[in-house]
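Dear colleagues,

I hope this message finds you well. In preparation for our joint manuscript, I am sending the GMC family oxidoreductase (Martelella endophytica) sequence together with its predicted structure, so that both groups work from identical material. I would be grateful if you could confirm receipt.
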Amino acid sequence: MAWSSPDVVIIGSGMGGATLAASLAPTGAGILVLERGHQIPDDAPARDPDRIYKNSAFRSDETWLDGEGRRFSPGNYYNVGGNTKLYGAVLYRYRWQDFQAMEHLGGISPAWPFPYETLAPYYDAAEALYQVRGDFSQDPTEPPHAGPYPYPAVLDESALAEVRQRLEKAGLHPSALPLGVDLERWLSNGSDGWDGYPDTRSGKMDAETCGLAVALSHDNVRLETGARVSGLSATLDGRRIDSVTYVQAGEAITVRPKIVALAAGAVQTAALLLSSGLANSSGQVGRNFMNHNATAMLAYDPRFVNDAVYQKTFAINDWYLADGENGPPLGNVQLLGRVVPKILKATVPSMPMPVAAHLSRHAVDFYAITEDLPDPESRVVLNGGDIQLLWRRSNMEAHRRLVKRMKQALRDAGFPLVLSRLFDGRVPSHQCGTARLGDDPATAVLDPDCRSFDHENLFVTDAAALPTSAAVNPSLTVAALALKAGDAIRRELGA
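The corresponding structure tokens are as follows:
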């Protein structure tokens, strides 16, 4: 294989890049995957809350600028498998209504250029690839499926079964989270949750252990780590991407692929396109940055004993499509992974450890998510040699109402004290939208197959392509879009 001129170069090994590689590997095409990070080693401190939440052992030392020009650590991870190595393994489909125009308190969430039914078969394939555990019959907001999930839902631990019953008595309808985790394998490596903990190939279904593993089982796929892409260049007529240059061990290497797929993450993808001056005839690259409005909630009851290990098994979608009073949507609430005393202490350093231990033992933890709406002025820009994130939160009144509703429901369920904390706007998660797909090249960067309107051999297959953020975890939708793009690339390679 002549790796200086591969058929396909994929930039990034996270959910979008790894899934695309798995889709294309059976074609026999030469596929080069470039990953700026390295594999997390087997002996990494993967189950140590102090190393993860206090000392940030796995977080990059990279800094960005916020809207005020202040430096911050963005909480992104650069390693084989990308951010999925530390994700909560929640693999939701967007709801059927998420593909339609929806009115929110903060404005309109625009329609996608195709309906749910177009992406449904790719959701099926993505759930098979990532071995999803779930039971969609429990959730009335779940869109149609062709068949059951590949595996049954992960069961609630006894303490969480009690919480579920309390919430049901309070009038809510908890439903199983769709999860990509082999519980037996995960727990055989330690009695810890998986949400926020790095996976050392020990039971979490992530971009490395599923998508990339399938791809690398084919001899025509090659992974290069420590390979940071520095630029793309186009042909003289601008119609195609001619070359990709990356730096590895201090050496600049240029390759000339037939197809380029950019999957470096919503912020890094936008930054690379901006620095290369590509795919931006619409002026939309970097714009419409979205990030879920999210709040952590801790519900305390001194009579309740939480002896759960992993905790993250169910969600509340009662207010996903409407607020319960015929008003606009509010969002999703799901269990967080178990917040152990060391995590509480790292989050609130002034809290005495005995207090953290008491709260953790007698509380249950939730995560409230509300859709962030696309706004051209919410954007990623380059400021000298720095990435600057100009995030303009939207739809916050809906988020406040969601948190208020959930707090009242938890009090009705017997938790007299509910603490909450809005996630810092300078520490983004579920980033998306910076190179969105659409029908109109004047307002979108990509066509419905995730192909650049400007360059016929350039695709974007990460969360940058998402035209809306919805209010559920985006990983499975990113995987489904990558599989859809994979079909388009297959046709291109065949031609």
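For the figure legend, we might mention the following. The chain has one domain: 8-494. Residues 240 and 455 are 5 Å apart (CA to CA).

With kind regards,
E.M.
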